[in-house]
Amino acid sequence: MSNYAWSYGEILEAVEEITNEGQPAFIHGDRVITWGDFKRRSNNLARNLLANGVRPGDKIAFYMRNCPEYPEGIAAGFKAGLVHVNVNYRYIEHELIYLIDNSDATVVVYQSEFQHYVDDIREQLPGVKHWLAVDNGKRSSYEDMANAGDGSSPGRIHSPDDLLFLYTGGTTGMPKGVMWRHDDLFQVLGAGGNPRIGIPPCENLSEFMERLKTNPRPVNMPLPPIMHGTGLLSAIGAMASGGTCVTLPSRSFEPALALEAIEKHKVTATTIVGDAFARPMVEELDANPRKYDISSLGVMNSSGVMWTREVKAGLLRHNENLMLSDGFSSSEAIGLGTSLMTKDQEIEVASFTLGPRCKVFTEDLREIKPGSGEAGMVAVCGFLPMGYYKDQEKTDKTFKVIDGVRYSIPGDWVRVEDDGSLTLLGRGSNCINTAGEKVYPEEVEEALKFHDGVADALVVGVKDDKWGQSITAVVQMNDGAAFDELDIKEFSRKHLAAYKIPKNILVKEDLERAPNGKADYKSIKEFAEASLGIET
């Protein structure tokens, strides 16, 4: 823990002073933005927003795919004291209106490809004073603001209480805005250190700058959309460390492009979301074992969904020096647990080391002891969000004070083993109650994905007159693999207790995970019910 009061605006301005202006800040396909241009453009954008009626504390929403203007705009917002708001570019009109209105955004930065949506919604959002279009570096309202001025700093005094909103879809209802103070967010991410590998946090800004001067700058490549927390924190991490952020120009994930970019730009760390990204990369590497040089890659980080041991082992076959870091976190609870795997250290599937500021509680807030066999909800204390923006009920439900300590309890169920490790069971809202037994989908999904023919699996509970709910799996098969329900059921007996084996296994060509790798359990359940003729 550092006693310094951190703010990303202050950090960025200090980093700019010690970073070579010719070094790439952002690389996006053939586009390269240097640190000198990044400093000039983000300063101009910040100054021009403030000069046109935007005030510190106002909200700036980003409705964009991955591109250099996204992190550049975030940096401008930090410098001007504006509150970042992420907008899911897959939303349609009513969802866009809800989020932008709920966040009280006064500025919206959007890509020109979404102009038709903006035209449809802007009259219903009178609180938005500035709509800034981005057009891949071409002349636009955003470019006009970024290029007008002498590039000098807006000169604002930054505060650790500056905010960043991280809107999360969650499992039910409309998206909620998680409110992070800059100081809390930078501290929970290590404050310039990395406790997982023994690097302590920096005591102050000067120490952080000295570290950056002596250490190699990172080259981060976030593969998920920056609009989601996993990609966003990777991009911000690159900026705050004076490094380079590499993004891919493709609309959907293309493993060959990712591997080519790792080699070409000597990427040192990449961020993924579990098997949805890692498995296609392994398949491409296996198919072309001498085509790609990924030796520069030292760390691959994942968060949000499970990442199977088989796929991790596949990556290590192609880069034995790689460290695979599986983070157990959510938008409102960073650092619930971690799982590290290297060539010398294998880990169990769905097993994490409990975070240093974490405990596990029952629903009545009784602490669970290791080895008890009880399932409980994992909780984290320390550096936490303030809560959900304009949603006190949800804030009170998630953030609890236990024995005088404030915890974030997002609802992830785990079992604490004898050695203190966590076995991830799943989000409580997806828990299946079958004949009085609680079954957590992730545990069954991971067992099914051990089958050689199964590429991906999702598990839901459907209405059952006898059992209350019956466990139903929907699988996506590997190319060329034949679907055999009985074979998969028989295989699962090696890994699951009898009551956890799916009563039904269905096949679907594509499980249609979101770009960030997360599953849409609602649509999968609807597919299962329709396939089984179940009326709801």
Structure description:
Helix content is 30%, strand content 27%. The protein has 536 residues and is of the alpha/beta class. The protein has three domains: 8-249, Rossmann fold, CATH 3.40.50; 354-428, Luciferase, domain 3 (Roll); 431-536, 2-Layer Sandwich (GMP Synthetase, Chain A, domain 3), CATH 3.30.300.30. β19 (399-402) and β20 (405-408) form a beta hairpin. α2 (35-51) packs across α6 (141-147), α10 packs across α11 (275-287) and α11 (275-287) packs across α12 (309-318). It is globular and about 70 Å long. It starts with 7 loop residues before the first helix and ends with a helix.
List key phrases describing it.
536 residues; alpha/beta; Rossmann fold; Luciferase, domain 3; GMP Synthetase, Chain A, domain 3; 3 domains; 15-stranded mixed beta sheet; four-stranded parallel beta sheet; 16 helices; 27 strands; 30% helix
